[in-house]
């Protein structure tokens, strides 16, 4: 039994206070709560725990309008596809430069009768620069009030770095076709950004700050992605919906696209997985067990496993969108614009490129019906399949439970601190100093040239690696009676309380980030100051270290941790993703505090706590 | 006899003041601008307002008498006027309004309070007359511009020299539709049965790219102490000709058949399955029957009617009189004389060749900047494409819930090489908003140098409204009236006016089901608290013995006790 445990046992035996029994259970409760929190996620995809999606905004009328982008319109799509493919080829062959390419594309939109304009963008950091030129055209709604707009986007280069030939040709053909309708109540903006990442993000920012040609408040946006140039057929439609910093579009928009697809018997897929795929359960379960469950039970299990997989990969995408992948729709995050990316998948299916265009047409018709901005339905949800979801009320307890484990430990640590008369000021001072230092380092790294980031980070890595080792190797400083040091228990308690508070708040904004961060740092709960816990502390410090996880993620993705940090930095510059700040402003300082606390020794009690409590 | 009556009628028509004119002007990019103008004059009157009503509508006359209005201007507009392609607005913007409805009037009164009261009466009457929500123009929507508008009333015989107060209001969110067109047509002497007004079919007029209606009443006085009211009604529409013609064939734009395709066969890949679309054919031929759904149903015999065709050389103009009349070549100016229906056919080998448009001296584009529910900004870009500086008055009205910061207003000039500099503007008038009572209103005068563009920017805070102040469909946002831009020349004459677009401002909007949740929750809490407190107050606090005693004194208990006692005595007896 550890020293702390003995102390508590002793206090309990001496009849300390009535609540001692429960305080003694707090660490266990904290562990229990975090385990329940983690298991909560596994419960969500169970039958009966999720709900089926439904269209909340009656005005949308998804799939009700008859779509006519078909038959002979295909001939035009084919022609535009030929044109775009020719431009791609001649650009690759060096026959035309970027400016000529842009003027060609702009010409197609202008010929249709749209007001066109260019937007030159760049995301710079010292000598490094991402830049390009976006083309866009505005179709003014006939007799519209010119105050609202919908956006249709086809990036020149899609999220996988492929030329989006199909998407752009569908976009131009749609522009021509939609111009013939007089039903529009909102303007339609057709955008061809140079890529789906920074280019589109810069365009959206410029639309709200500096562009001369604008078309009013954007109510919704659809990004088209059809990179398969060889075939004009596809199997199913994939929908990407994750935004930046954990933001999601209104669920009604996804529902609209899904319903539009289902009216044509087109299957919609999210996260690349369908419920009926062969899951790991079916793959790896021994035959004997399979026989034991029987076919029907196996199907239920298989579907559950797939829903779990969709949910978890949805959370992963929520965490990484804007950092490592950018389907395009995330560029609209933060401007109160709901956006989704539609992507055609496969080459052999019964659906043709005009079906894909009809999906955009039908969804635009629905958005066009909206009188109010998207506001009904859900903004916080986890999708388990295109038609099944879990809303915030059901999933949030998971993250809250994990995050609640920190304050529970904090209460325990504070209640069992050996020294009654310690001042909180010193602990606060240490915490503020560590947070300040880490945030400053994080802030400085965002403004220094990339060449300087490497050395700074390397030294940080080294120092961080040394810190836990130091805490083992170096003898703990003896307690100094003259200047009572900050009590490690109290420091840890306050830092854990803070951690719990911030991660819980974070969970309501960015559930995935809070959940992952909470789970990765849950071991902070088991750090105990003092040399008696050196080995367990060292293990905890290693598994909660941000660098450990950066290296681990890097190993999985076959990149160096520096590259991941660079991605975080660029996502901050170009996409305003604040995961970097969470790393340097929350995780790292908490970890440094844990290191400091774990190597400091508990000062000797100045007076009997037992007596103090008795007086109460 | 018949002839003499006709002659008589014609004479009367000449004497009495009513005229109508339709002018058709093909624009570039396959559009057609149709402009209907109707002008009616009242009988001259001296001191008392009009007594007889021939052409001048009696209902308007009554409203004018009631409200003591010297001038009334009403604008209905919808759509986007493409100034780059179509040039200045029709009539230099004199009869064009911003999106939605706009109204302004000069009211004669001895004091401003009195005038304002009459103004509210006036907009309420107009609201009923034109089936528009003009009654929503209350004090929070009313401004008093001093420089943007000028009186059209002329003459100085005393009648126009009394004090008149100008009030103006705009409702940008008001949709303009057939219910506004019908009362408009009813004011005309021929009421859409004859004359050019017979072309005003809501289905066709409102299926246009841009459309505006205007009603203007002003007073003209001569030196002989006689005044008359002049009513001008205009309808302007920009029609997408190919779409209109296509809709006659296919009401919805279904895919075309192969035979109707216009493909670029010069493309190397061109075949039966791949068709690079060519634009609309440059060879056009259409008639007003195809565009407006019917021909002109003969002349409106009260007054004079004419049709003006503004086309350059190369266009062929033909007309057809009657149902099965001959198609004859015609002049660009036609005067409507008989009761036969008249169809006009325009055709050209090169429809892109149109009459030159006069480029506007300044372009204006306004949009919101910033994001979030707390604050925002407005950015208005003015571009002077000409080689001469342009001076104009720019006026904006901002609702009170847009908390405008005057000190943040900045003008940034950018010359043709992209060099930026601080611009200056003169504040002609600024009236600060009062919550729920008065909007912010300012009129600025600025000069943009040749080939410069300038950006006027300012910041504002969004305020929270009371629950009841949110309109239905609150998440739509609030429409901000268009800015009015009036170009002035060196003499101070207004040469052109235009409007910026309306904006949609999204304010922090509550979840409207939330108040009900709150009401239910608080009611439950109050019921619980009340219940317990109520029972505490009414119940007496007693000791156990007292309570036992009191409970034993109830009639039921007494009865029971009696039985018990009897039982006990019986048992005792038995023993």
TrEMBL record, chain A:
Listed GO CC annotations: GPI-anchor transamidase complex
Protein name: YALI0A08536p
Annotated InterPro entries: Gaa1
GO biological process: attachment of GPI anchor to protein
A Pfam family reported for this protein in Swiss-Prot or TrEMBL: Gaa1
Keywords on record: Membrane, Transmembrane, Transmembrane helix
Superkingdom in the source lineage: Eukaryota
Coiled-coil blocks: none
Membrane-spanning residues: 23-44, 395-415, 427-448, 496-526, 538-557, 577-597
Automatic annotation (TrEMBL), chain B:
Membrane-crossing segments per the record: 516-538
Keyword Hydrolase: no
Signal peptide: 1-17
Family annotation (InterPro entries): PIG-T
Any Pfam family the entry gives: Gpi16
GO BP annotation list: attachment of GPI anchor to protein
The organism's place on the tree of life at top rank: Eukaryota
Cellular component, GO annotation: GPI-anchor transamidase complex
Keywords, alphabetical: Membrane, Signal, Transmembrane, Transmembrane helix
UniProt-recorded name of the protein: YALI0B20746p
Native organism: Yarrowia lipolytica (strain CLIB 122 / E 150) (Yeast)
């Amino acid at each position: 039994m550890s020293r702390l445990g003995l102390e508590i046992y002793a206090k309990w035996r001496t009849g300390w206070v009535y609540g001692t029994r429960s305080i003694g259970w707090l660490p266990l409760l904290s562990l229990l709560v975090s385990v329940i929190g983690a298991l909560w996620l596994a419960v969500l995809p169970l039958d009966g725990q999720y709900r089926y999606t439904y269209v909340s905004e009656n005005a949308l009328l998804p799939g009700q309008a008859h779509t006519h982008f078909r038959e002979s319109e295909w001939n035009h799509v084919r022609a535009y596809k030929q044109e775009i493919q020719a431009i791609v080829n001649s650009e690759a062959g060096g026959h035309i430069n970027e400016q000529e390419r842009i003027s060609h594309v702009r010409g197609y939109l202008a010929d249709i009768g749209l007001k066109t304009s260019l937007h030159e963008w760049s995301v710079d950091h010292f000598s490094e620069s991402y830049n390009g030129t976006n083309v866009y055209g505005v179709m003014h709604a006939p007799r519209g009030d010119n105050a609202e707009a919908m956006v249709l986007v086809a990036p020149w280069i899609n999220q996988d770095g492929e030329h989006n030939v199909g998407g752009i040709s569908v976009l131009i053909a749609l522009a021509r076709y939609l111009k013939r309708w007089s039903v529009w109540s909102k303007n339609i903006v057709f955008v061809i950004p140079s890529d789906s990442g920074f280019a589109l993000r810069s365009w959206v920012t410029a639309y709200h700050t500096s562009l001369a040609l604008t078309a009013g408040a954007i109510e919704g946006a659809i990004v088209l992605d059809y990179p398969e140039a060889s075939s004009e057929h596809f199997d199913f439609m994939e929908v990407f919906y994750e935004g930046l910093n954990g933001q999601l579009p209104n669920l009604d928009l996804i529902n609209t696209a899904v319903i539009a697809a289902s009216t044509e018997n087109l299957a919609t897929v999210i996260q690349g997985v369908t419920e009926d795929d062969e899951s790991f359960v079916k793959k790896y379960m021994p035959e004997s067990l399979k026989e034991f469950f029987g076919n029907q039970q196996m199907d239920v299990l298989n579907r559950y496993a797939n829903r779990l997989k969709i949910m978890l990969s949805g959370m992963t995408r929520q965490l990484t969108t804007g950092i490592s992948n950018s389907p395009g729709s995330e560029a609209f995050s933060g401007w109160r614009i709901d956006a989704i990316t539609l992507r055609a998948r496969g080459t052999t299916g019964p659906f043709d490129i005009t079906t894909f265009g009809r999906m955009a047409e039908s969804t635009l018709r629905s958005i066009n019906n909206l009188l109010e901005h998207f506001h009904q339905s859900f903004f916080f949800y986890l999708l388990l399949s295109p038609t099944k979801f879990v809303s915030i009320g059901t999933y949030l307890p998971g993250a809250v439970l994990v995050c609640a484990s920190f304050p529970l430990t904090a209460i325990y640590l504070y209640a069992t601190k050996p020294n009654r008369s310690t001042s909180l000021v010193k602990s606060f001072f240490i915490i503020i100093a560590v947070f300040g230092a880490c945030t400053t380092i994080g802030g400085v790294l965002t403004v220094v040239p990339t060449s300087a980031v490497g050395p700074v980070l390397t030294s940080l890595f080294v120092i961080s690696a040394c810190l836990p080792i130091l805490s083992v190797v170096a003898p703990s400083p003896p307690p100094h009676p003259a200047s009572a040091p900050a009590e490690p228990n109290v420091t840890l308690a306050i830092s854990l309380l803070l951690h719990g508070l911030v991660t819980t708040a974070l969970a309501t904004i960015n559930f995935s980030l809070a959940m992952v961060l909470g789970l990765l740092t849950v071991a902070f709960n088991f750090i105990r100051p003092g040399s008696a816990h050196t080995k367990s502390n060292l293990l905890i410090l290693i598994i909660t270290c941000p660098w450990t996880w950066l290296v681990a993620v890097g190993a999985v993705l076959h990149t160096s941790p520096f590259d991941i940090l660079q991605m975080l930095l660029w996502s901050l510059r170009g996409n305003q993703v604040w995961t970097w700040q969470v790393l340097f402003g929350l995780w790292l300082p908490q970890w440094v505090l844990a290191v400091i606390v774990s190597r400091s020794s508990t000062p000797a009690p100045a007076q009997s706590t037992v007596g103090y409590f008795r007086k109460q | 006899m018949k002839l003499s009556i006709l002659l008589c009628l014609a004479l009367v028509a000449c004497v009495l003041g009513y005229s109508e004119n339709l002018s058709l002007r093909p624009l570039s990019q396959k559009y057609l601008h149709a402009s209907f103008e109707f002008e009616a004059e009242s009988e001259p009157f001296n001191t008392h307002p009009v007594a007889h009503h021939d052409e001048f509508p009696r209902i308007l006359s009554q409203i004018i008498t009631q409200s003591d209005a010297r001038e009334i201007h009403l604008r209905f507009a919808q759509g986007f006027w493409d100034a780059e392609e179509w040039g200045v607005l029709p009539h230099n913007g004199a009869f064009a309004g911003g999106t939605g409805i706009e109204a302004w009037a000069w009211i004669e009164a001895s004091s401003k309070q009195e005038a304002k009261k009459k103004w509210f009466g006036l907009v309420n009457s107009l609201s009923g007359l034109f089936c528009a929500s003009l009654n929503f123009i209350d004090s929070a929507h009313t401004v008093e511009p001093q420089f943007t508008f000028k009186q059209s009333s002329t003459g100085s015989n005393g009648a126009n020299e009394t004090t008149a107060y100008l009030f103006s209001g705009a409702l940008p969110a008001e949709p303009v539709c057939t219910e506004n067109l019908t009362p408009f047509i009813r004011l005309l002497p021929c009421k859409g049965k004859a004359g050019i007004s017979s072309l005003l079919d809501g289905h066709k007029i409102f299926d246009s790219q841009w459309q505006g209606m205007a009603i203007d009443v002003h007073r003209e006085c001569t030196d002989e102490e006689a005044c008359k009211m002049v009513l001008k009604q205009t309808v302007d529409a920009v029609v997408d000709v190919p779409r209109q013609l296509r809709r006659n064939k296919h009401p919805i734009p279904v895919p075309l058949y192969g035979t109707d395709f216009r493909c670029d066969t010069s493309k190397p890949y061109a075949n039966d399955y791949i068709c690079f679309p060519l634009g609309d054919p440059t060879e056009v031929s259409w008639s007003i029957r195809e565009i407006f759904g019917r021909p002109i149903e003969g002349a409106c015999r009260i007054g004079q009617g004419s049709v003006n065709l503004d086309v350059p050389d190369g266009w062929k103009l033909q007309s057809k009189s009657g149902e099965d009349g001959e198609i004859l070549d015609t002049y660009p100016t036609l005067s409507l004389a008989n009761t036969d229906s008249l169809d006009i056919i325009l055709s050209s080998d090169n429809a892109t060749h149109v009459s030159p448009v006069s480029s506007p001296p300044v372009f204006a584009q306004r949009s919101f900047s910033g994001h979030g529910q707390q604050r925002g900004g407005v950015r208005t870009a003015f571009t002077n494409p000409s080689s001469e500086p342009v001076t104009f008055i720019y006026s904006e009205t901002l609702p009170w819930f847009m908390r405008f910061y005057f000190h943040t207003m900045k003008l940034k000039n950018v010359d043709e090489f992209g060099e930026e500099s601080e611009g200056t503007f003169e504040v002609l008038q600024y009236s600060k908003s009062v919550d729920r009572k008065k909007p912010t209103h300012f009129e600025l005068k600025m000069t943009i140098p040749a080939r410069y563009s300038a950006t006027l920017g300012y910041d504002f805070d969004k305020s929270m409204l009371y629950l009841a102040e949110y309109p239905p469909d609150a998440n739509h946002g609030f429409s901000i009236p268009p800015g009015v831009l009036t170009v002035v020349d060196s003499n101070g004459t207004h040469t052109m006016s235009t409007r910026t677009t309306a904006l949609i401002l999204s304010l922090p909007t509550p979840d409207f089901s939330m108040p009900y949740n709150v009401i239910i929750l608080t009611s439950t809490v109050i019921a619980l608290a009340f219940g317990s407190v109520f029972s505490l107050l009414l119940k007496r606090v007693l000791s156990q013995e007292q309570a036992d005693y009191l409970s034993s004194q109830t009639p039921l208990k007494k009865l029971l006790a009696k039985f018990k006692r009897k039982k006990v005595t019986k048992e005792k007896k038995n023993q």
